[in-house]
Amino acid sequence: MTWNVLAEIYGTIEAFPHCDPYMLAWSYRKTKIIQEILNNSPDIVCLQEIQNEHFLDFFKPSLGEFGYEGVYKQKTKEIFTSPSGKRRGGKYTIDGCAIFYNKKKLKFVETYALEFSKLIKEASVLTLPKEIQKNPSLVKRLLKDNVALVILLECIQQYSKIYDKSEEKQNKKLLIVANTHIVANPEANYVKIWQTQILVKVIEYLKINFIKKYETIPSLIICGDFNSTPSSAVYQLIYKKTCSRTHEDFNSDKYSLLTDLKLGHNLNLKSAYAISKLLSQKLNPEEYNNLELYEPLFTNYTSNFIGCLDYIFYNDENLNIISTVNVADENQLIQEAQMYQLSDCALPSPIRPSDHLPLIAQFEFKVF
């Protein structure tokens, strides 16, 4: 499961004027969020917009009661500004990404946290033209406080269909799970491209090192809120392994910050929802180059924006997609609004505690 749960600091009446105050109250929404997670019982949960104090005081203990363990990475404070948080009790609070996993089925191996501002600052020395490097204000345009979290998990063998104690080492199942929340600003598509390129290259590097270290090829799932629609350069970069510099998203790069950035990766990523939809229609995904047409119509539904921003990507080298849980359609949201006598079917709603909808996919390890 992946889900942007809408942090308390962003759930304001100014941002969501269609909501009654109780619908935005964290005390109300947090219960709905936990119920949604537990009702689906996912083995892995990737959450975005988790405030640091909520991870420690609510999510970790609440999910811990049901056998989950979690890791967390909050956004960086290096470029912290007031829009990213609010004063609470004399200190700033900030959100981030969390990954929870079922301890009965999965064992923690190691984790890696990405701070995009730090990595981009380091990469800019090699990839930005010298004249731009001399202008700190231009480099600063790339430095946003977004993060990603990567965890390496081992599948506990009794849950593997091919469990054989004598071949436990050979059958070791490792899984890389990455969770991210890419910058939201619609005028900063060039930053989204930068962050996504950094993300896939770091994961590529980690995967190579995990193979050397553990002598097995780990499976890979990347998910999160990419703040990018299926028609975006970000989506193209992820699933086509590169993207055209003639894409309209490059028009936002007014200062040529992308000019020397090498774009591409070798992760061979597929979209769980797009592939699942094709398979459900008895179509061969290998014959389709336009997977973006098979994504959900929306995962984010507000008064100001309706579109698909959230994804579950995976490498099909040793994973099969089994199924995905259908995302609510507009008719369903309209019916729910009518049931509660609401004038707007936008999210959040009394029964949907975030402006984003959760995505849920079921995978199985391939047997060779």
TrEMBL record:
Gene Ontology terms for molecular function: 3'-5'-RNA exonuclease activity
Endonuclease/exonuclease/phosphatase domain mapped to chain residues: 1-356
Membrane-spanning ranges: none
InterPro entries (UniProt xref): CCR4/nocturin_mRNA_transcr, Endo/exonu/phosph_ase_sf, Endo/exonuclease/phosphatase
Protein name, UniProt field: Endonuclease/exonuclease/phosphatase domain-containing protein
